[in-house]
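$ ./design --mode recover --in tokens.txt
reading tokens...
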């Protein structure tokens, strides 16, 4: 997860915010569900902090009870979320809103 899906999800966040280098990062996780000898975690939580004053979090779980993949943006003026399949539309909307005030 952190070595595969995380890179794609955080890239989408970087496109939205316009920053791509965090000044600090921390993560915790482990193999909690699939105890089959794997070394990559099946559960992970990561926090990245950026110089522009925003944080990105990533949560991933391979356990069967986990549902959905998407991007959520929360700020002082509201919150929006999008399923992974709609992430490109969300990115385009945020960019348009920056320029025109609507999308």
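writing sequence...
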């Amino acid at each position: 997860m952190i070595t595969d899906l995380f890179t794609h999800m955080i890239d989408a966040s970087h496109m939205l915010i316009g920053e791509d280098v965090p000044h600090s990062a921390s993560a915790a996780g482990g193999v909690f569900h699939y105890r089959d000898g794997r070394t990559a975690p099946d559960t992970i939580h990561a926090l990245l902090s950026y110089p522009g004053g925003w944080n990105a979090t990533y949560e991933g779980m391979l356990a069967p009870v986990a549902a959905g993949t998407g991007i959520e943006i929360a700020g002082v003026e509201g919150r929006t979320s999008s399923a992974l399949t709609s992430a490109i539309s969300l990115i385009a909307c945020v960019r348009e809103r920056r320029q025109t005030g609507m999308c």
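exit 0
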